[in-house]
Amino acid sequence: MTDPRNDLQVDLALLVAAAREAAGIATAFRAPEVWDKPDGGGPVCEADLAVDAMLRARLGAARPAYGWLSEETADAPERLAAERIFIVDPIDGTRAYLEGSQDWAHSLAVAERGRIVAACVLLPQRDLLYTATLGGGAMLNDAPIRASAETDPERATLLGPRLAMSPEHWTGGDVPPVRRAFRSALAWRLCLLAEAKFDAMLTIRPTWEWDIAAGSLILSEAGGTATDRRGARLSFNKPQPQSDGVLAGGALHGVLLPLLEAGPAPPPA
User: Fold this and answer.
1) pTM as predicted
2) 211 annotated as a binding-site residue
3) Annotated binding-site residue? 89
């Protein structure tokens, strides 16, 4: 009988090789054409689409039975019937990429029946490769990583936008005394929690699956926790591929969750 852990390692190797090829494409562009997505969806550029096309061709050829969900591909209902599916953000942090920052990533994951089972996040400009398989632990550049054990908000740093620290999102308006920081790529934020560089992360608005799929497994395999902002387990390959925000962290997750005000989500930015 085939060991399922070996199966996941083979899928992970495929993801890593595809991410490295994506890095070669993205870093080769010098002044990509840029346009805005409809309905305030943010910028998209030639590099996003070139990476997406390569990933879909390479991964699809290697695993034709797997479904496909990507930020830069029109969604199709066929993915819902697939037992396994690729969930991909070709360039997570397009704004940072266009600004010449190093803070963008390729985020690739495999989901099986709603849960992530293999994942990689590659930051080419920082030479950072985060990987994980379900039950196999989390790695940064092939070294094991572990999430923060910090439980005191006064000593903690939370990654998130200013909106996350608005009093209306906390019970009684009492914002916990954490320091706030920000990074552009959601996938990288989750990975930074996995290596204990920060203690927690919060998004209030609905969050797309491709932004959090890979990073959520990397964090959980590092001993952390990622849920929606109400504490529900994250599930993937849903008909509407979004979560109700995200609360993630090491030990601090369980401290912050009871303090959050579970009101209606604000409209998209």
Assistant:
1) 0.95
2) yes
3) yes
